[in-house]
Write a structure and sequence with these properties.
With about 300 residues, the protein is an alpha+beta fold. About 40% of the residues lie in helices and about 20% in strands. It has a four-stranded mixed β-sheet with strand order 9-10-11-12. A three-stranded antiparallel β-sheet has the order 1-3-2. β2 and β3 form a beta hairpin. α5 crosses α8 and α6 packs across α8.
């Protein structure tokens, strides 16, 4: 029976440079080429049983950065507690590299070549990352307006940036490419969205000509106890809108949802529930259903 490979403690949990591990005598080239180690990028490895979460990929990319460069855009957001990378594994990481420095291209690495002021680069957990303001600016000037607002909403929710900072971020970068796109996205950003789909649902309704609903509206019972906190609501009309993610399929969550919905109905609320399939694949249907519910609720209010 073959003996299991010995794994140095220094290499067990975090990505590392293969050349550095060999130079320190922790591994031989033959060992590094074996099944115990997985190559993440050219010259960067991890133990096959180590976490391969977004943070691990940030640590790996950090080992590649030339002087003055930093993780940026969606990769930077990860280090601020905002995961915009999606579910792809491995994820596509993003870095900003100031000229004349260069970084070898890779299928899972997007390299933005742009200048970074000293104040626009900070370190988090030993990783070079764009500052909160620069990260917000980069994400908020995305050509996809909805994606830009999703990112800004998420940064606001995690308190990476504050609402009143958005104007300052734009004012400090007058004349830079994308500043007008950033201003437009910032004008649509709101505090309170707890998921990207809540933001997408809100923007869909506004684009469809409906009034903008409030976020995270709390409904209380006659005894003063909190009945529910609705994702979006037209509170004056007692019309609530909910985005149901996959976790709502859990039996216990489903049970609580039923109890909650009954309590809301007894308080005179109408609640429409939508899924990702509704928002992404049938946006016109979503807008029409909300429009009808809005008109019915408004008519009911007028008649009373």
């Amino acid at each position: 029976m073959s003996r299991p490979a010995t794994v140095p403690a220094a290499l067990r949990y975090a990505p590392f440079r293969g050349s550095a591990a060999i130079a320190r005598g922790l591994l031989t080239r033959g060992q590094l080429a074996g099944p115990t180690w997985q190559r993440m990028f050219r010259g960067i490895y991890r133990h096959v049983d180590a976490d391969a979460d977004p943070l691990a990929w940030c640590q790996a990319v950090n080992l590649l950065l030339p002087p003055g460069a930093a993780l940026s855009h969606r990769a930077a957001a990860v280090l601020y507690g905002v995961n915009l990378l999606g579910r792809s594994n491995p994820p596509t990481m993003e870095v900003t590299v100031p000229p004349p420095e260069r970084l070898r291209p890779h299928p899972h690495l997007i390299v933005h070549r742009a200048g970074l002021a000293p104040a626009e680069v900070v370190r988090r957990g030993g990783i070079a990352v764009t500052s909160p303001a620069r990260t917000a600016f980069d994400l908020g000037r995305d050509a996809d307006r909805v994606a830009a607002v999703v990112a800004l909403d998420a940064l606001l929710h995690q308190r990476v940036i504050k609402p009143d900072a958005l104007r300052a971020i734009a004012d400090e970068r007058l004349g830079r490419p994308g500043v007008l796109a950033f201003r437009a996205a910032a004008a649509l950003a709101r505090t309170g969205a707890e998921s990207p789909m809540e933001t997408r649902l809100r923007l869909l309704l506004v684009a469809g000509g409906l009034p903008e609903p409030v976020l995270q509206h709390e409904v209380f019972g006659g005894d003063g106890w909190l009945i529910a906190r609705l994702d979006l609501a037209y509170r004056d009309l007692r019309l609530g809108l909910e985005y149901d993610g996959d976790h709502h399929r859990d039996r216990e969550v489903f049970r609580r949802d039923a109890v909650r919905l009954n309590r809301l109905r007894l308080r005179g609320w109408t609640v429409l529930r939508f899924t990702a399939d509704d928002v992404l694949r049938h946006p016109e249907r979503v807008v029409e259903q909300v429009r009808v519910a809005y008109e019915v609720a408004a008519s009911r209010q007028t008649s009373t």
